[in-house]
Amino acid sequence: MKFTLTLFGTHPLSKPSPENFGAIETLAKAARDNGFDMVWAGQHYLVTHFQKFQPIPALSRVSAYTGNMYLNITDLIPLNHPVRLAEELASMDAMTGGRMVLTAALGYADHEFASFGVPKSERLARFLEAVEVIKRLWTEDTVTFKGRFFTLDGVTMNPKPVQKPRPPIWMTADNSKGVIRTARHGDVWLMSSHNRIAELKELVALYEEHRGAGRQDFHDIGISRPLMRVTFIAPTLKEAIDEARPHIEKFWRDYYGTMNQASEMNSTDDFSQPFEKLWQDRFLLADPSRCVEEIARYREELGIDCLHFNLSGALEQQLRSIKLLSTKVFPRFR
Amino acid sequence: MKFTLTLFGTHPLSKPSPENFGAIETLAKAARDNGFDMVWAGQHYLVTHFQKFQPIPALSRVSAYTGNMYLNITDLIPLNHPVRLAEELASMDAMTGGRMVLTAALGYADHEFASFGVPKSERLARFLEAVEVIKRLWTEDTVTFKGRFFTLDGVTMNPKPVQKPRPPIWMTADNSKGVIRTARHGDVWLMSSHNRIAELKELVALYEEHRGAGRQDFHDIGISRPLMRVTFIAPTLKEAIDEARPHIEKFWRDYYGTMNQASEMNSTDDFSQPFEKLWQDRFLLADPSRCVEEIARYREELGIDCLHFNLSGALEQQLRSIKLLSTKVFPRFR
User: Could you give the ipTM of this predicted complex?
Assistant: First the structure.
């Protein structure tokens, strides 16, 4: 079982940005020193309620002290040019000695598509075409491509990525369409933190059905079935719930409320429901022994080989979660 | 007088990319330890004769050990989206505590415009509009913008840059049109390494004429008139010329030969001319005492307050140039 960590999500507007970035560096070093296998960062643009750092510069910076951990960079693919992204990620693969992973995201927030001048109706077609271009630039010496959005005429990219045949491409998905798309076009499906386990169980069956006989799991870095969970670990379950609540409740209501995230899911699982109902079977709020049981259950019910922790709470609370995971949870799975 | 350094340009295809990137890290640390004030990197895409790293991830990575040096990131503005660039550079300003500078480049290579689907005829209009959007996103809380290429409807960027009112925007220019554009729209003109000093002298007069009464020099980081020179310093002038020649001659012939760079300049100063003629008054090939004389001449003739070194040669030769500059040249100007 591998264990990975969301290195940064959002940061308070009230603090200077260098202080917020310093917290990222502290977390990165704690992850390195406590046995995590990878750090990950999401992407959004023009965020109003928080500070949010851009994953390519931020993860490039922390790569100077993340040791052997992999770096997983999310990019909103329909809003970027695949030549730029393919080149930047190849540079990151060089600087990390081949430890770069891409999470190719489709995007959903209306203000982002509007600000980039990309019709949301084109997002899927752009996404699929861009992923194809990136794969070809990473693996072929001379690329000629005539698509609906992108045209390349005998071009070559140097350097190519260090990883052969190429770095893994993860995709996030929290509904049937996304899961089928990931089964067909992605290397690895990062199971979303939005869904309850019960809902994911149905999506895993769908994934396997559409993965088909021709597609092997992509095992190059030892992760083929990762599950993301919003997590808060404390000495007791009551502390975990009570301390996590103010952070999670506000974030899901304010942030996802402005982003239309819930509307993408299969279920009518509105994120504005009362916290007592919202968290059940969705967030990993636990003491260490409950955490061990939950991970064992996820492995049995979903077949996961990686738990991806999206830790809630202030920096000190996240560092406590990391320490409890490292000392009381990870040893049970290694 | 400030002294700045091109941290990376191009790297041999024959070496693994992590080894080429390691040379960048070695140079960055040498620059930091030898009194340089800033490191800089250019940008190109889809380069065939060399490996070339992308400046945002590469400079973000080296920022972990560049101490108090500024980082100057070149971006081919017409090929990028200003929202993405403004956000990525603000993240870099946070992680460096306010030491990020942008060199806004217009671009010239046909294959780059074709591969990004941007008509070269639009490059200037896109450049000017994107620079305006970046300035507004960096300084205004809510940005509404309706341009020919970009539309923003009441959006906000967080975090804003650390530097107030905003980070400096440099522009490169090696011909009259570019110099007039820089005088009008840029904060700082980086005088090009392509031109001979005699030609630059005429361009400086043009810059000052068009800078006009309303535009103060942008002094925030103590550099307002930087000059870039391709440089090779050796114990004797003969060694400098003989050792630099194979590196410079091949690079200018092969690389610029494929890029149409020379065609942008005012003069008919073809880069394929014999080396003995090519280097005179253009490249800074020198022993330390000639180097001191040349910098003093540039200061007198062009009014520079910063010499930007684009060092030629293998890594060991570049490190020798750095050591000779640090011990025998810099002390004469500080």
Answer: 0.95
E strands, A10-119, are: 38-41, 70-76, 100-105
Q: Which residues, 6+ apart, have CB-to-CB distance to A271 below 8 Å?
A: A252, A253, A256, A257, A261, A262, A278
- Please name the member of B51, B61, B156 whose beta carbon is closest to the beta carbon of A61: B61
Taking CB atoms and an 8 Å cutoff, what residues of chain A touch B66?
Answer: none
Residue B91 domain boundaries: 2-333
Give me the number of domains chain A comprises: 1
Express each pLDDT in A94-123 by its tens digit. 999 999 999 999 999 999 999 999 999 999
CA of A176 vs chain B CAs: smallest distance (Å): 30
Output the pLDDT for position B219. 65
C-alpha distance from residue A220 to each of A127, A163, A217, B2, B259 (Å): 23, 9, 9, 48, 38
State whether the Cα torsion B146-B151-B153-B157 is positive or negative: negative
A–B interface: beta-carbon pairs under 8 A: 163
Q: pLDDT by residue (tens digit) across B261-293?
A: 666 777 767 787 888 888 999 999 999 999 999
Average confidence (pLDDT) over B320-331 = 98
Q: What are A129-140's pLDDT values in tens digits? A: 999 999 999 999
Residue B101: which CATH number?
3.20.20.30
Measure in Å the smallest separation between the Cα of A312 and chain B Cα atoms. Answer: 20
Average pLDDT value for residue range A83-98? 98
Q: In Å, how far is A298's CA from the nearest CA of chain B?
A: 36
Closest residue to A63, CB basis, from B56, B61, B149: B61
CB contact under 8 A, B17 and A61: no
Q: What percent of chain A has pLDDT over 70?
A: 94
Nearest to A74 by CA among A97, A53, A96: A53
- Is the CB of A159 less than 8 angstroms away from the CB of B53? yes
Residue of higher predicted confidence among A24 and B9: A24
Closest by CA position to B225, among listed B303, B298, B126, B328: B303
B57 contacts A83? CB cut-off 8 A: no
DSSP percent split of chain A into helix, strand, coil, nearest 5: 50, 20, 35
Instruction: Give the chain B residue whose CA is nearest to the CA of A137.
Output: B46
Query: Which residues in chain A have Cβ-Cβ distances shorter than 8 Å to B95?
Result: 18, 21, 53, 57-58, 61
- Å between A29 CA and nearest CA of chain B: 13
Q: Which amino acid is at B124?
A: L
